[in-house]
Backbone:
């Protein structure tokens, strides 16, 4: 080998550089700006409010400099999000555009429903659009674009991009970016839907109030910028959204059963409201109710109810652990229609390369989490004084003490005080009484009765001393197994 | 201390003697013989077929001598139970008395029901007697007398003795004796209902065929012999049984609503059949279906269905572990009416001294069994090659190999080949590619992203070598926690 000595040092990954890669700030990415008012929509504005020039220069240094400027700015004057809510400033806390889109519109719709009861056809239209919109968010925005859990062909992507826009949750580009940030920074200040700030905050509060610019974060979305569908949808988002969300249902209902107004309210506004609330639940409900079979250090949880509400995104503890698995539910009896749609689409050639984590990796996670729970249960139980903390008695001391204390018995070189247990012994008082002052190792371990785990555990809680040179063995149970094995071997030999 | 040297040896419990105590053969016990035909009933005959003289002499030596004689006898000629069933000897295999009591009678009843449909009053009578009989077996025969799980006052004991006799399952003395033997010798030849011999055998087969005398076993029942109610019931068993099982319902039905024949069939025979089958399920169903939360080395199991059928004796895995606990079900949502009856009887002063095992002991059992399951799951998973089985590479070797093999990366002093994972990386290809040929310990452990359990597990499966002097740490996860703790401490210090 001709490697010079100096080369013997392995180069470490440059963390700053790698962070820039992870943030997508290390190189010139395709610039995607939404047209007109669209750029202002649902937070997309802040995303595109940089010039192409800035984006190109956006090295890690630039980023650090900007961070510094921000810090200085808010050292002098606190950002609105850091000020308490008062009757003078409350309107400044609020993101009014979002407020209109996720509260105002539904409110208008709710009032309208009062004047306009739905027709049967319109209800069906609303339900169909609800399902298409919801699945476009879960199978499209979430599993396909945010997590690359599989690859999709153009027709399917177009479908998802259109009906996903109709759900009025922002463009793919904006949605997937925040979502990647959420995964990378779960339960930190940088997590846009930070569940630690309460159920309400993670459900809608985060988008209705102004975020603290101190906690800005970025994720690399250059793969999305390479996708013309993502680019196109983002550029013309406002147009596509309005058409898909409101105009299309109005036209359909007008054309086929002459119910334009109903189509607008139920197929449009009301449908949008329901999809929004349903998918918002992935950020709230999925971080609040349920079990944590894979990891309990963070908030994500698995719950059947969340799955029902969110087209199958309810096994969120699993999802945060295995984000690029195209499945959310693993078991056949768990509800995950999104998984089924993806699977079926692959069968008809509309998608391919469905990613799954290995059964091995999944089971490992389960085993580790269960182990953690067991260990914490175990730590709360009384397993008897450890042998090293017990006094050591000579045999003569044992005889002496046995005279005044009428409950001492030796098992496995350990002295136990079974006084209080004599009357409780399931095998009767006589047997225990007959063992007092004696060594009952063999009798206890199978000579008379091969005691259960429970009996060995109880016994351990009664330890009082160790016998000197007594071959003490804290694991009385292993001793019993040895004894029984020997007996079985002897029986086998004698046959 | 004046103990002479010779006394320094601790006396061991004499196993032979203790076994005699456990078998109740060490001393003269009160002799209880059933009157007349009663002595022959349901196996009680063999129990009393010893003279008072013999019982008194029944030391362990006597027992051993008898065992020897038995062995010699059946060495020359095989016992019927050891011979195959043929068309010549099948009738010798069968215990005809029991056959009549648990099969013949019900068959007769079944035919009779065809000719005599029940009246409403008679059905109610049958159900009430069924409940009284069933509870007398579970709360009385089983938990009170067999297991001393609590103490009962005379009125309650009389009730249990009467209605228990009416269930036609033998006397308390006989029943509790076999049951104690069953617990002590579960799943061995000496277990009267040995579940290893099949569902049918443990359900009824054991009582319908002749048992092998080679496998006789005994349990101490001197406490029962001290109970006048047990003695009285055993002495007059046949009389009490016939009256309680058949005559009483006939009289009631005749006297109050003039349906003697119905009372006999439904309140008598049919009721007996149902109670018998229900309680037999404790020996069959409870050893066959369900889960084993406390111990899986033996057959007892917990199942809701068994509980429903047996007045709450369905948590049999728990019961074998904690036999003298007056409860069978621990959780409020588990079905155990027997427990409730015992509890209520204690509230009205009919019983006292209800025994329970400590929560600690119960949880210990659960923890141990879960640990066992986890360990076996863990053993079936791939946790990566143990460090000691990996080749050791110099750093120069790592450089060399990194040239041809394009997937090597060092994390925690261990070389991993991540080639096949690059395309699967949920955090994108770029980050992993940027780490190839480098040490990514810090980046992987929180410098860029604090990877989940799952990621650490996956990583371990990709191990290929250990770096010489590289401070290898198989537990990459502990390393990550250290790193994060340090970061948190630094952040706290800088605030
Ligand atoms: C001194 C501490 C003892 C403890 C804590 C203890 C505990 C227990 C427990 C919990 C049971 C219920 C069944 C089981 O869990 O395995 C049991 C049953 C039994 N024990 Fe012990 N025991 C002790 C001593 C002894 C000794 C010294 C003997 C014999 C010389 C003995 C003989 C039996 C027998 C024969 C049974 C069977 C009862 C049955 O299941 O019907 N035990 N014991
Ligand atoms: C070479 C072995 C690697 C494996 C087996 C691995 C595995 C994983 C896995 C399973 C995830 C999903 C989330 C999680 O489970 O924590 C993940 C996410 C991530 N990884 Fe890695 N990784 C590796 C290397 C790296 C390296 C070297 C970096 C950085 C330089 C990195 C950066 C990230 C980032 C930023 C995410 C966040 C993605 C998200 O949740 O949105 N990984 N990785
Ligand atoms: Fe989440
Ligand atoms: Fe996600
Ligand atoms: Fe049993
Ligand atoms: Fe029992």
Residues:
């Amino acid at each position: 080998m001709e490697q010079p000595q100096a080369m013997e040092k392995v180069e470490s990954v440059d963390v700053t550089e790698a962070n820039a890669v992870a943030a997508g700030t290390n190189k010139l990415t395709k610039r995607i700006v939404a047209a007109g008012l669209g750029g202002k929509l649902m937070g997309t504005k802040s995303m595109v409010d940089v010039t192409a020039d800035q984006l190109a220069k956006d090295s890690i240094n630039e980023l650090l400099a900007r961070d510094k400027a921000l810090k200085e700015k808010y050292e002098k004057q606190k950002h609105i999000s850091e000020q308490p809510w008062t009757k003078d400033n409350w309107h400044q806390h609020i993101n009014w555009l979002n407020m209109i889109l996720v509260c105002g519109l539904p409110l208008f719709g709710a009032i309208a429903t009062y004047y306009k009861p739905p027709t049967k056809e319109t209800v069906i239209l609303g339900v169909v659009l609800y399902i298409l919109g919801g699945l476009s968010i879960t199978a499209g925005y979430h599993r396909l674009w945010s997590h690359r859990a599989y690859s999709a062909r153009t027709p399917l992507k177009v479908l998802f991009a259109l009906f996903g826009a109709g759900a009025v949750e922002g463009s793919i580009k904006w949605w997937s970016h925040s979502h990647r940030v959420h995964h990378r920074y779960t339960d930190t200040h940088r997590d846009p839907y930070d569940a630690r700030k309460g159920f309400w905050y993670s459900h809608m509060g985060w988008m209705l109030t102004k975020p603290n610019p101190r906690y800005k974060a970025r994720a690399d979305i250059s793969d999305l910028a390479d996708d013309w569908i993502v680019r196109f949808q983002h550029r013309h988002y406002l147009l596509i959204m309005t058409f898909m969300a409101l105009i299309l249902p109005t036209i359909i209902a007008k054309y086929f059963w002459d119910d334009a107004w109903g189509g607008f309210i139920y197929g449009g506004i009301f449908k949008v409201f329901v999809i929004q609330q349903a998918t918002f639940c992935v950020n709230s409900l999925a971080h609040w109710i349920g079990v944590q079979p894979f990891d309990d250090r963070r908030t994500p949880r698995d719950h059947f109810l969340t799955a029902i509400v969110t087209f199958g995104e309810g096994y969120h503890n699993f999802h945060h652990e295995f984000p690029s698995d195209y499945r959310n539910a693993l078991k056949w009896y768990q509800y995950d229609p999104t998984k089924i749609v993806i699977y079926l689409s692959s069968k008809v050639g509309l998608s391919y390369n469905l990613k799954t984590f290995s059964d091995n990796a999944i089971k490992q996670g389960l085993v580790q989490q269960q182990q953690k729970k067991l260990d914490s249960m175990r730590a709360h139980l009384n397993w008897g004084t450890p042998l090293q903390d017990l006094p050591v008695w000579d045999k003569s001391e044992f005889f002496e003490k046995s005279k005044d204390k009428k409950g001492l018995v030796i098992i496995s070189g350990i002295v136990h005080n079974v006084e209080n247990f004599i009357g409780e012994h399931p095998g009767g008082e006589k047997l225990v009484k007959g063992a007092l002052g004696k060594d009952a190792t063999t009798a206890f371990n199978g000579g008379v009765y091969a005691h259960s785990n429970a009996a060995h555990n109880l016994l351990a809680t009664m330890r009082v001393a160790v016998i000197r040179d007594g071959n003490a063995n804290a694991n009385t149970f292993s001793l019993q197994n040895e004894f029984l094995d020997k007996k079985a071997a002897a029986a086998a030999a004698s046959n």
Q: What stands out?
A: Confidence is low (pLDDT under 50) at residues 1-7, 39-60 of chain A.
